[in-house]
Amino acid sequence: MTIAALNNLKVLACDIQNAYLTAPCREKIWTLAGLEFDPEAGCKMLVVRALYGLKTSGAAFRSFLRETLYDMGYNPSPADPDVWMKPGLKDGGFTYWQYILCYVDDVLCIHHDPKRTLKQIQAKFKLKDDKMEEPELHLGAELSKMDNEHGDECWAMSSDKYCASTVKNVEENFAKKGLRLPSKCTTPLKHGYKPELNCTGELKADGLQWYQEMVGSLRWAIEIGRVDILLETALMSKYLAMPREGHLEQILHIMGYLKQHKKMRLLFDSSYPTVNEKCFKSYDWFDFYRDAKEAIPPNMPEARGHAVIISCFVDANHAGDVKDRTSQTGILIFLNKAPIHWYSMKQTAVESSTFGAEFKNIKIPV
User: Fold this and answer.
1) In whole angstroms, what is the distance from residue 148 CA to residue 293 CA?
2) Taking the model in full, what pTM does it have?
């Protein structure tokens, strides 16, 4: 979305109808026709399409779609096999990359003329309602357009509807027990709460399943924009195998927080950040890294379109876990001014200083 706004490209979405049934079946399966196949009832029939529920149906559809995209001149990105790229050229000689993003049967196309590309896909696949339109809802996230501080139109993402639906489901389950979600939740976790010190009783099987389901819902809410609960959900995710009653209370506290803080939208701002180079001191590392070179992948695609600036912010709460003295890592990556990746995890080693804990962040593969 950031690349689209930066290079003045359009974004259209479509949904492939009866996706798996479009692909040939990879398995040798036969069945006896039922009465509904009259007059062929009782005949042996071969399954020739990838029916839902077969072991290889997902792989069969993905392979079938890949062949279509290859025929259209697209190739998978070296970084993500479901992001397809093709050199593009706009009027005036402006070069850029055309993109097709696939998530099973959901397809996004980023192109100066995306309808032409999607019509090529439509020639091979039936699209739901034959629609090719700007996306409003994608994988649970609401997509919209808004202007940045410079008046440039950019894309934005919100998880409001998903979070509202999640909280509603939790409240309905809670209401059956005559209980309500906590109120006045100003922070995702209660102030000063340390999950590693919780000594309440372990949850039974039904409580364990409910805990895991809610954590899964929270993790997807984070994936589609709720960065404000990332750290707290990561801390509580460590107890998925054996959560305690106190841990469940804190997950419900996060749900109460989402109920009271409903509106949040991430702007994929394509404008360039202002970086003051004077803040970075220059040092001579020649004696230590004489032969150091930037590791550039040999299969890296050529640069097309406007350049971008990648910024990475890292932090760690030194010895945040008071039981084993490990630190929690936080990573936030921006493309220009657009947040594109956020991550939080527990470090695997104990560091003796804040510097060590934060330096270790930079070495963590994301």
Assistant:
1) 37
2) 0.86
What do you get for the CA distance between the two ends of the chain, in Å? 21
Distance CA 366, CA 364 (A): 6
Q: In what order do the strands lie in the sheet with 83-89?
A: 10-15, 106-111, 95-103, 83-89, 75-76
- Who contacts 330 (Cβ-Cβ below 8 Å, separation ≥6)? 230, 231, 314, 315, 316, 343, 344, 361
| Dihedral class, residue 342 (left if φ above 0, else alpha if ψ from -120 to 50, else beta) | beta
Single-letter amino acid code for the residue at 334: F
Mean pLDDT of 302-316: 93
Q: How far is residue 45 from each of residues 19, 32, 167, 256, measured CA to CA in Å?
A: 22, 6, 47, 54
pLDDT digits (tens, 9 = 90+) for 326-353: 999 999 999 999 999 999 999 888 988 8
Alpha-helix residue ranges (DSSP H) falling in the chain: 2-6, 57-71, 114-122, 160-175, 205-223, 230-237, 245-260, 354-362
Q: Report which of 338, 90, 104, 361 is spatially closest to residue 225, judged by C-alpha positions.
A: 338
User: Taking the domains of the chain in order of start, what are their residue ranges?
Assistant: 2-135, 160-260, 283-362
**What's the CA angle centered on 123, arms 119 and 128, to 5 degrees?**
75
Residue type for 137, please?
A: L
Q: Which residue has the tokens 């910024």?
A: 311
CATH entry 3.30.70 includes domain 2-135: yes
